[in-house]
Each structure stands twice: as structure tokens, then as C-alpha cells.
Write a structure and sequence with these properties.
Elements (H helix, E strand, L loop, with lengths): L4 H15 L5 H21 L15 H5 L7 H15 L14 H4 L3 H15 L13 H17 L10 H10 L11 E4 L6 H9 L5 E6 L2 H13 L6 E4 L18 E6 L33 H10 L1 E12 L8 H12 L2 E6 L12 E7 L8 E6 L5 E3 L2 E3 L2 H13 L7 E5 H6 L21 H6 L2 E2 H5 L2 H4 L3 H7 E3 L4 E4 L6 H6 L2 H21 L10 H15 L8 H26 L7 E3 L14 E3 L2 E5 L4 H8 L1 H28 L18 H8 L5 H38 L5 H42 L4 H21 L7
Parallel strand pairs: 1-2, 1-4, 2-3, 4-5, 6-8
Antiparallel strand pairs: 5-7, 6-7, 8-11, 9-10, 12-14, 13-14, 15-17, 16-17
Helix pairs in contact: 1-2, 1-6, 1-7, 2-6, 2-7, 2-10, 8-9, 8-13, 13-22, 20-21, 20-27, 21-22, 22-27, 23-26, 24-26, 25-26
Length: 806
């Protein structure tokens, strides 16, 4: 059975738990990633003489498994890894972590137990068959770990990882297409762990030739490892300082030039001049100006521009300050704008990156069309994100919107526009995005006349025009004309939402909105998923078609609808699809027995319990089997549950009424002041008062009724569970497809889209209610009410012989 993505991720994170405490994340990442690498290459290439990695005898993960419990497990693990590194020219890449370090892993038995458990976690993963072509399960798992390591490492160690969401944007805006040749090159001068390079390469149908340089030794090792895990073993990653000692040069000793470049250089580098005299730079990178000595942001941008071919394209992440800072940076910025190198600027939200909380931007370079450039396309995407712990994160819809708007040069109010170079020149070549795009929401102004004389301003109602275009009759049912320029409410504020939801126009709108979904669901043909299909290609295709289905739907945002699908894909659907493309639809029959080793706790919640055996359904939850095949039995279980609830309630009420201080059941209380069946039975043998005996007998009767109801429910539930258990192997392929696609996937997606339709109308209802409540009482009415209440107070005080004066 294929490993699901989320199950793999949880196993990998469990391996981190074995190391957490002895060292911080920036250190234990080396151990976990090395173990992942060893397991992967052993499973995939052991015994394969033509594999990209040679696994000689004695250097496989199996040899590490044999060390569990060994007194010399640390030293012998180091030797296994070292031998594999030596064989494959990976010295300094996979042998960075010291598995015999007592300071980090503990001494004696502590080290033995920790490493044995760590190896055991990876031992249970079969990574040989869990990577379909084009879908890098291990590569994705690597990125999952990198994100968590960066999060845990904090500010000082987060620089080795660019969030994958940002990487995707860079890779999609630099101009790589389906026609891009495999021979085309992509370069990152500060490549970190290599995620930007890999994302860019993935955009080409057959990948790209990868070149990178990274100054930090440990991080460059991560990049090499990452390339192999992503099946890019030929990628060229060099260690060294790109600015003072660039490694990629042509035959003439000048900088090698590339077709594409992506980079997330360190922000505001304070010592970029170390080892270099910018005035005498042999590579002529500072033709357009020398960046300030204490701020190296433009250093990397200039290096990248010099490293691009005359037709080259690139994208660089830099702090917002590069757009508007003065002096030397202003001169560089002006020169680059005049040269036409800058194609566009994308402003990102703050707090996206692990090394800093400041907002950043993406500067997109295009040397190919530099001389013809008449403007710079700007996007203010600073408000599109979701909170994720203490960081912000771009959602799928944010990424899609940025890429679509930028690549198609779509101008949208308060979001994007093409800014003419003449306008930029008039602003002294300042590129600060707010100068050109006002992304602020219009201010909600109060109407003084409405507050004084009553009525709802017509202009406020008119601002909801996009709703009234769809719901003209709803507007008429909510408002009527009052004095000139003002309207009166026809519905109480508390009834606005129900009025909208129950209106025929809304029902028509909701039904029409769902038709887009039903048409998409039919065209998606999800029941045709086959073994060998590519999950990433599938979600790309069906998400794009869903976007198109809702591209012209009134009121609804196609990006919000897209997000519904992408969230469900991430949470549930992708795991299901990964199983289906590897094991086929018969996987729907599988119930995996959960086996717990002695002394351990059950790590997963079982879906079915049959006697003492516990099972997990791989694809089809038992509730779907019940709904499809055992509706009558489920109805009977529900009926028995209701009967039990009633019996429990009746017993609880009776005990509460009769077990007080003077209650007839007071003598049946135990030492915890509770009446139980045992205490009632015991008291019955001693009681002599007829009223007490009657109360005790009634209590016993109710206890017995509750017990009988519990037993009846358990018997019925056990019978239903057994019937469901026996139904799984009987399922036909058509039944499995219908259960997974219709009852599970499409039903949940439809439910979420219905909720989105209602959410849109909720926004209308909230605004209408707000306006009604704001102007419900004009100032004269409020003043009169205050006077009336004051008179009442004065009257009451006078009656008491007091006088109230102001």
C-alpha cells in the first residue's frame, strides 16, 4: 500500500521528536535529512548497477537497521554514511552530521536508544515505489521538513529556506514555458537549500540545467542532497561567496551567462565588500553604480543582471527599501530603469520569510525586451495572505492571482497597473508601490444629515450596486424611498439575512452558482483516474477548469472557489489520489489493521473496531458505507441512541430531584455524593420507610432501563460495524468510484461551495444591517428619549422628597 503524503510527513516529524531537546532545529535537521537520504537511495538504488547513486555492499540502510541496539551504533552509522559518500562524491554533503556525538545524542544507552528509535522510524517507510514520474513525494517531504526546520530555527537560521509559495511565484513569472528547452539554464547565486532552482526547473516540461552557488557549507550540502532527492543529481551546486569569488565563468574568465535566474539573497548584507574592491571589479558588475558599503541588496541584483544572457530573464526577492532608498541606490535604480531591465515589481505581504519580518518585493528582470520597454508592471499583493502561527503565508489563491495578473498584465483596481516610465521619471525614479497603486479600502463616512434627520443615505446603498445588479427585487424588499437622497428600511435589522436567504432571487442565484460546479464536476471525470496518472498534473488541470467555470460568475470570486478546491486537495484529496495512482481503485476495499507494539499507545484513531481488533480505512470512511448500504440499520442505531439519551435524561432528572439533603435517596449517596446502582441496591436491603423504598425501586428501575438501552445500542452498533467490515471486500469498482468521487470528494466540495455562496450574501446582509442600525434613530429622537428619561428620574426623586438639578 502506497504511503500517503501526510502519513509520510508525520513519520518524518516523529523522527525529529527523537532528536529534539539535545540540539536545536538548525542542527538536528542534518541528522533527519541524512537519514531520509540514506533510506531513499537504499530503497531506490540498492542492487541497481545503473542507478544514479551507487550503493555498495555494506552501505545501505539495511546495514544501519542491523545496528539497532549495537553498542557502537553511532560510530558504525558514521562509517556506513561515509562509505556511501566516498563512493558517490558526496563527501561534505551527506556526512555532515556526526551520529557519534555524545553532546548531541547522549552517552551510552541514551545514544543507543535514540539512534535505534530514529532508524526504526525510517525502517517502516518503503520509499522505493512512492514516487510517480513528475510527482516528487520525497522532494515534497524534504520541503515539508525544511519549512519546519526554518520555523523552529528562528530568525538566526531561517535563511536557508525560501517558502515554497514564494518560490512558485518566482518560477512562474520569469517566462519559462512549455516550449522551454531542457538545455536552457537556470542560476541562483545564493541558492540556499535549492528550492528556488528546483521550482524553476519544474516549470519546464523536461526540466532545466541547474547552476547554483551557496556560501554556507552546511546549506550547500542541503542543496546537493535536495537535488538528488528531487532526481536532479546532475545539478551543479558550488560552495563559495558569489560576490567575492563567483565560480561560474566562461572560457574568457568572465561571468557565465544564463537563460534564467532566481534568487533570495540575504537582506541588507552589511559586509558584501569583504574580499572585493567594487571599483576594480573584474566582472564589471557595477557599471550602473556601486551599492552602499553597509547595504548589499543591489549587489546581488547587479550580479544577476550581469549573469543573464542578452535574452535572459530573472526574478529576485529583495526588501522594499530597494524601491525607494536614496543616494547611491537611487542612482543605480534610475540607471536600471532607463536601461529597461526591470519588467515588473510584485509587493509581497510582511512576515513571510523566516529570517526577517519586514515586507519584501519581487523584482522581475527581462533583458530580452529592455529597449522597447515603456513602463513597469506593478502588483500590490501585500494584503493577500493567511496567518500561520507567528508567520504569514500565501494561500493557493494568492499565488494564482499574482501569477495570472502579472503574466497576463491584467490591471485591477487597488491591486495592479502598468506604470508608464514617464510617471516613474516624474517621481524621481522612486518605485515605492503605494505611489502608484492605492490599495487602501475606501473610507466608510458617516452622513451627518442622516444622523440628524433620519433615513439611510442612498449613496451608501448604491455602493452595493454589484449585489443589486443580481438582486434588484431584494433591494426593493429591503428599502423604500424617503426624503430626497435617503431611504427607509422595510425590514428589521435582525431579519435582513433571513429575508435575503428566503428570497426567490437569492435561491435562483444559488442554484445558478451551483450549476457552474456541477458542470465542472461532470467534466472533471474524476472516476477515470488510473494507475500511473500524475497527481500534480491532475490538480493543475481540474483547478484551472474550476477557475474558468467561475470566471464570469456574478458576486463569487473565482479565486475563493479555487481556494476551496486547493484546501480540500491539501487536506484530503491529494492523499487519496496518490494512493489511487499507485494502487488503483481496489485500494478502496482496504482496511488496515492497527497494530500496537507492547508498551506503546495507538497513534491513529481507528475507523472500525471489531471485537478487540482496530482498523483504519485507507480511502472510504465507514460512514459512507453506512449511508450507501445500511441506511435502515443506521436509522435503528439512531433510534436506540435516542432511547438511551432519554433513559439517561430521565434517570439524571429523577436522581437530581430525590438526592438532595431531604431527598428520599439521600441515604443512597456514596462517599462522593453520588447515587449509583450499587448504592441503591445496597440501600434497598436496609430501607424500612415505604416512601424511601418506593423511591429506591424507581431509581433501580431507571438504572436498569439505562443499562438495557446501553446494551441494545451496543449490540446494534456492533452488528452494524461488523456488516460494514464485511461490506468492504464486496465492493465493486463502480461502487468504490462512486463512494470516493461522489459521496466523499464532490459532496464535500459542494457543501463548501454552498457555504461560500451564503458567505457572499452574508457580506451583503451585514452591510445592510450596519447601515440600518447606524441611522435607525436620528439625533432629535435620541435627544427626546433622553429628555423623557430625565423627566421620569426627576419625578421619582421628587416623590422621595429630593430635587435633581443640572
Amino acid at each position: 500500500m502506497a504511503i500517503k503524503k501526510n502519513e509520510l510527513y508525520s513519520s518524518l516529524w516523529a523522527s525529529c521528536d527523537e532528536l529534539r531537546g539535545g540540539m536545536d532545529a538548525s542542527q538536528y535537521k542534518d541528522y533527519v535529512l541524512t537519514m531520509l537520504f540514506m533510506k531513499y537511495v537504499s530503497d531506490k538504488y540498492k542492487g541497481d548497477p545503473y542507478g544514479m547513486i551507487v550503493v555498495p555492499k555494506g552501505t545501505s540502510f539495511d546495514d544501519m537497521v542491523a545496528l539497532k541496539g549495537d553498542k557502537e551504533i553511532g560510530d558504525k552509522t558514521n562509517k556506513i554514511i561515509s562509505a556511501l559518500a566516498e563512493e558517490n562524491d558526496l563527501k561534505g554533503v551527506i556526512d555532515v552530521a556526526d551520529f557519534n556525538d555524545e553532546d548531541k545524542l547522549g552517552k551510552g544507552k541514551e545514544m543507543i536508544d535514540r539512534l535505534s528509535k530514529l532508524i526504526g522510524i525510517f525502517e517502516g517507510l518503503d520509499l522505493s515505489s512512492n514516487r510517480a514520474d513528475g510527482d516528487d513525494l520525497l522532494g515534497d517531504a524534504y520541503e515539508y521538513l525544511m519549512r519546519h526546520f526554518a520555523t523552529e530555527s528562528g530568525k538566526s537560521k531561517g535563511q536557508f529556506y525560501t517558502p515554497s509559495e514564494v518560490s512558485r511565484i518566482l518560477s512562474k513569472v520569469i517566462g519559462i514555458t512549455g516550449e522551454t528547452s531542457q538545455d536552457a539554464t537556470v542560476y541562483d547565486p545564493t541558492c540556499g537549500s535549492g528550492s528556488l532552482l528546483l521550482k524553476a526547473s519544474d516549470e519546464a516540461p523536461r526540466g532545466l540545467s541547474i547552476f547554483g552557488q551557496e556560501m554556507d557549507n552546511a546549506t550547500s550540502a542541503l542543496a546537493r542532497m535536495n537535488m538528488i532527492l528531487h532526481n536532479n543529481a546532475t545539478a551543479k551546486i558550488w560552495k563559495g561567496n558569489t560576490i567575492s569569488d563567483p565560480q561560474w565563468k566562461d572560457d574568457n574568465g568572465q561571468l557565465k551567462t544564463f537563460d534564467f535566474a532566481v534568487a533570495n539573497p540575504p537582506f541588507s548584507n552589511k559586509n558584501w565588500t569583504s574580499g572585493i574592491n567594487p571599483q576594480e571589479d573584474e566582472f564589471e558588475r557595477f557599471t550602473w553604480g556601486v551599492p552602499p558599503e553597509k547595504n548589499g541588496d543591489y549587489t546581488f541584483l547587479l550580479h544577476i543582471i550581469k549573469s543573464l544572457k542578452s535574452t535572459g530573464k530573472g526574478a529576485v526577492i529583495l526588501p522594499h527599501g530597494v524601491l525607494f532608498r536614496g543616494n547611491a541606490e537611487a542612482r543605480i535604480r534610475e540607471n536600471l530603469i532607463k536601461q529597461g531591465y526591470i519588467k515588473g515589481i510584485i509587493g509581497l505581504p510582511a512576515n513571510l520569510f523566516y529570517g526577517t519580518g519586514i515586507p519584501a518585493c519581487i523584482i522581475v528582470i527581462d533583458k530580452d525586451h529592455a529597449h522597447a520597454r515603456k513602463g513597469i508592471f506593478m502588483v500590490d499583493a501585500s494584503k493577500g495572505f493567511i496567518k500561520d502561527g507567528n508567520k504569514n503565508r500565501l494561500r493557493s489563491q494568492d499565488i494564482y492571482k499574482i501569477v495570472e495578473v502579472f503574466t497576463k498584465q491584467l490591471e485591477q483596481p487597488r491591486y495592479s497597473r502598468m506604470v508608464p516610465l514617464s510617471e516613474i521619471a516624474a517621481n524621481d525614479y522612486n518605485l515605492n508601490i503605494p505611489r502608484y497603486i492605492d490599495s487602501s479600502e475606501p473610507e466608510d463616512l458617516h452622513d451627518l444629515s442622516a444622523h440628524l434627520q433620519g433615513g439611510i443615505p442612498k449613496r451608501d446603498i448604491d455602493t452595493l450596486e454589484r449585489y443589486w445588479n443580481v438582486f434588484p427585487s431584494i433591494r426593493a424588499s429591503l428599502f423604500k424611498a424617503a426624503r430626497e437622497g435617503y431611504s427607509a428600511a422595510l425590514v428589521k435589522a435582525s431579519e435582513v439575512k433571513s429575508t435575503i436567504l428566503n428570497h426567490e432571487e437569492f435561491k435562483t442565484f444559488a442554484a445558478a452558482s451551483l450549476q457552474h460546479y456541477h458542470a465542472w464536476a461532470h467534466a472533471a471525470a474524476l472516476t477515470e483516474i488510473s494507475v500511473g496518472d500524475l497527481p500534480k498534473a491532475l490538480i493543475s488541470e481540474i483547478s484551472e477548469s474550476l477557475l474558468q467555470s467561475y470566471s464570469n460568475a456574478p458576486l463569487l470570486s473565482k479565486y475563493d472557489i479555487y481556494q476551496i478546491l486547493m484546501d480540500y486537495w491539501s487536506d484530503v484529496m491529494q492523499d487519496d489520489v496518490y494512493v489511487l495512482v499507485q494502487d488503483g481503485w481496489t485500494a478502496g476495499k482496504v482496511l488496515r489493521e492497527l497494530v500496537v507494539k507492547k508498551g506503546e499507545k495507538l497513534k491513529e484513531t481507528p475507523d472500525l473496531v471489531i471485537g478487540k481488533d482496530k482498523y483504519k480505512a485507507e480511502l472510504i470512511p465507514p460512514a459512507l458505507i453506512v449511508a450507501r448500504f445500511f441506511a435502515e440499520e443506521k436509522a435503528q442505531v439512531d433510534k436506540l441512541q435516542s432511547a438511551l439519551d432519554s433513559a439517561c435524561q430521565e434517570l439524571e432528572t429523577y436522581l437530581e430531584e430525590n438526592s438532595g439533603e431531604d431527598g428520599l435517596l439521600n441515604d443512597a449517596l456514596n462517599d462522593k455524593d453520588k447515587v449509583t446502582k450499587a448504592t441503591v441496591t445496597a440501600r434497598l436491603k436496609l430501607a424500612t420507610d415505604s416512601d424511601e423504598k418506593a423511591a429506591l425501586k424507581q431509581a433501580k428501575k431507571l438504572f436498569d432501563a439505562e443499562a438495557d438501552a446501553k446494551k441494545a445500542l451496543k449490540d446494534a452498533q456492533d452488528a452494524l460495524d461488523l456488516a460494514v467490515f464485511k461490506q468492504y471486500p464486496k465492493l465493486s469498482i463502480d461502487e468504490i468510484k462512486s463512494l470516493i468521487v461522489n459521496d466523499k470528494w464532490l459532496a464535500m466540495l459542494e457543501s463548501n461551495i454552498v457555504a461560500e455562496i451564503e458567505r457572499v450574501t452574508q457580506q451583503l446582509a451585514n452591510r445592510v444591517k450596519e447601515l440600518e442600525e447606524r441611522y435607525s434613530e436620528p439625533l432629535p429622537a435620541i435627544t427626546q428619549s433622553v429628555e423623557n428619561l430625565s423627566d421620569k428620574v426627576a419625578g421619582h426623586l421628587k416623590a422621595m422628597g429630593l430635587e435633581w438639578t443640572l
